[in-house]
Amino acid sequence: MVKFRPRSEFLDIMESRGFLSDVTDFQPLDALMRRECVTAYIGFDATAPSLHVGSLIQIMMLRWLQKSGHRPIVLMGGGTTKVGDPSFRSSERPLLGPDQIDTNIEGIKSVFSKYINFGESGTGAILANNAEWLDDLNYLEFLREVGRYFSVNRMLSFDSVKSRLEREQSLSFLEFNYMILQAYDFLELNRRYSCRLQMGGSDQWGNIVNGVDLTRRIENRLVFGLTSPLLTTSGGEKMGKTSGGAVWLNPSMYSPYEFWQFWRSVGDADVHRFLLLFTEIPIDECRRLGALKGSEINESKIVLANSATELAHGKEAAQAAAATAHEVFDLGGTGDELPKVELDPEHLRDGKLPVVQAFVLAGLSASGKAGRRLIAGGGARINDKQVSDPGQMLSAQELAGPLKLSAGKKRHAIVLLPGRLGASKESGGVSTEN
């Protein structure tokens, strides 16, 4: 951790807002960032068609970097995704094919334009893909140029590898190469764009240090590494996950309303920290909002939800989500922005759908067993009326309504049969028109 106050704007923001975990050569980096525009990168492997909230702390770091007068590089892992990062995992990632990786990259790209500006200016962000240099590597030349700088003894000592081996869990040679390839990324970005800084989560510290060492040895140039803390909620849960699954950043996979509601529902103890990390609200105001107690903290959560959603999805989406929440919670209405699930008629049995399956299809229960527990606990509602019978069947006529399903007080979805999504409110349906 930092033991003295940074003087550069970027590192001061990182330290004061809670982004900073470890830094290599802090004082030289601080001095460099005061003197000139520094190019820095963070890598994102394309393991899914969207990033989730767990990646948002790194995205915000890139945003603050650019706002502080420096140039960010978003590095897509088109090449490294074919290997899979083994860091602190208990098993090998499923290997994805080139077509799936390309599809995932296309889905991920759209997220970044909401947070940083790409362009030709001095601080204009760069979007790169490490497949450009990794796909065509000559293996023998790579071993001679790069491999000779890596000590297997040292690689085995990194916590990300050692923890796997200590549990006697298999680590393939393919995965073992990941840290070498990530280190080579830094070298290549330094050569192409004069990149001086690699950033990432603290689980990437070993990989980042490798890249710093490799670039210094081959290019004889001082480069740096910086990591942020791995974020968990005050309850110890991994950031970006909920009982219903991942909190995706792409609106097609997780609606702006659901995104807004995720932030509105955070624990009281997380509000201050999340305001600092995921909004641009001034620090003093974050401190004031985070210190509120009792029912007043709910207003702070609304500020957090509005600010985080506006960054991710735009001001109009944030306002619409807030209006829907007001309608659903304060006025008892349906809400146009609630997630809508169009059911497949094949799900019906003799024209009926089990109520437990309806909650699963709506994404409000992870499984039928979880749905039955929800009903048994009194947390399942349809059109604001409690469901008491897990064996209840919903008719096709009821589903044409449509129906608002609720899991607890904060998670809702609209389910209906095909052809009803465009129905007007006057006819009993829910409009999706803007």
Report on the structure:
With 434 residues, this protein is an alpha/beta fold. It is built from 19 helices and 15 strands. The strands form four sheets. A six-stranded mixed sheet has the order 1-6-5-2-3-4, with helices on both faces. A five-stranded mixed sheet has the order 9-15-14-11-12. The protein has a two-stranded antiparallel sheet with strand order 7-8. α3 links the parallel β2 and β3. α13 runs antiparallel to α14, α13 runs parallel beside α15 and α15 runs antiparallel to α16. The longest helix has 17 residues. The radius of gyration is 24 Å and the shape is globular. It starts with 8 loop residues before the first helix and ends in an 18-residue tail after the last strand. The C terminus is likely disordered.
State the share of residues found in helices, binned by percent.
40-55%
The share of residues in extended strands comes to 5-15%
Coarse morphology: globular
Strand order of the largest sheet: 1-6-5-2-3-4
For the biggest sheet, the summary is: 6 strands, mixed
- Distance separating the two termini: 48 Å
Q: Could you tell me the radius of gyration in angstroms?
A: 24 Å
The number of distinct β-strands equals 15
Unreliable stretches: 420-434
Q: How many alpha or pi helices?
A: 19
SSE-based structural type: alpha/beta
Question: What is the averaged pLDDT score?
Answer: 86
